[in-house]
Amino acid sequence: MKKPWLHILLALATEDRYGSAIQEEVRALSGGEVRLWPATLYGSFEELLEAGWIRQLDEHEQPGGAGGRERYYRITPSGRAALSAEARRFDAMAHTVRTRLGEESV
After folding, report:
1. 29 neighbors 80 (Cβ within 8 angstroms)
2. Which of 17, 19, 29, 72 is the least crowded, having the fewest Cβ atoms under 10 Å away?
């Protein structure tokens, strides 16, 4: 999974968000280490939409105070499954690293 995709899906895992809110959430979750610039963010949206991992909300689905210019996105069930699979892959890799470092018994 591409790194920007992971961060976008993670930002959407708890609530629907629009572009700059996703950028802010990613920055907060990463302790400021990851910044999604607009070209990366919106390019990733296109790819994630095409993959079926996120969807853009219709106007009537957006939060009540939405100004209309913002496009809100929601993670889909297949996006959640992909994020969960990535978490399992990370767990397996972390286990391998700890084992190789002698920090975990086999």
Report:
1. no
2. 29
Q: What pTM, to 2 d.p., does this model score?
A: 0.85
Considering the domain boundaries, does residue 89 fall inside one? yes
Residues 25, 30: Cα–Cα separation, whole Å: 8
Residues 3-25 have a mean pLDDT of: 95
Tell me whether residue 105 is in a domain.
no
Of the candidates 45, 46, 41, 71, the residue with the CA atom closest to the CA atom of residue 59: 71
Asked whether residue 106 is assigned to any structural domain, the reply reads no
Residues 17-35: pLDDT tens digits? 999 999 999 999 999 999 9
* Burial bucket for residue 38 (CB in 10 Å: 0-12, 13-18, 19+): exposed
Structural domain total, the chain: 1
* Alpha carbon of residue 49 to chain centroid: 12
